[in-house]
Amino acid sequence: MVKISDYVGKNKLVLVDFWASWCGPCRQEMPAVVRTYSDFHGKGLEIIGVSFDSESDSWRHAIHELKMNWPQMSDLRGWESKGAEIYDVRSIPANVLIDQNGKIVARDLRGDDLYKKVEELLK
User: What class has domain 28-121?
Assistant: First the structure.
């Protein structure tokens, strides 16, 4: 079982990334997230994937196919997900960037904007 609280505030920059295997825009954005993770994981970035899937096989297949090599979680409740409720997510893709002290420093960064913000915060 993965809990976001296991990562936030542990001297890491944490990106909570909300997505689903059936979400076309999420899949289009994933190469940028993978690149950001690859370049900055060793420097203090952690990503936690929170899926809005309701089918386990589709979810697990997408994780492998999209090369999402970071912790993943899903309660397989789709839009009724606890993550959606806690972070007030109403559309995906969505993300929340949380600094080393547990403070939300950015929301819904995409592509180069995500990369540049992570790079700036990990200097």
Answer: alpha beta
- Determine the residue type at 63: I
Q: Are strands 104-107 and 94-98 parallel, antiparallel or unpaired?
A: antiparallel
* Two tokens, residue 108: 């819904």
Q: Count the alpha carbons within 13 Å of 123 in the hemisphere toward its beta carbon.
A: 6
For residue 49, report the phi and psi dihedrals to the nearest 5 degrees. Answer: -85, 130
Q: How many helices (H) and strands (E) does the chain have?
A: 4, 5
Sequential pLDDT tens for the chain (123 residues): 677 888 887 778 999 999 999 999 999 999 999 999 999 999 999 999 999 999 999 999 999 999 999 999 999 999 998 888 888 899 999 999 999 888 999 999 999 999 999 999 998
Give the residue among 77, 107, 105 at the shortest CA–CA distance from 89: 107
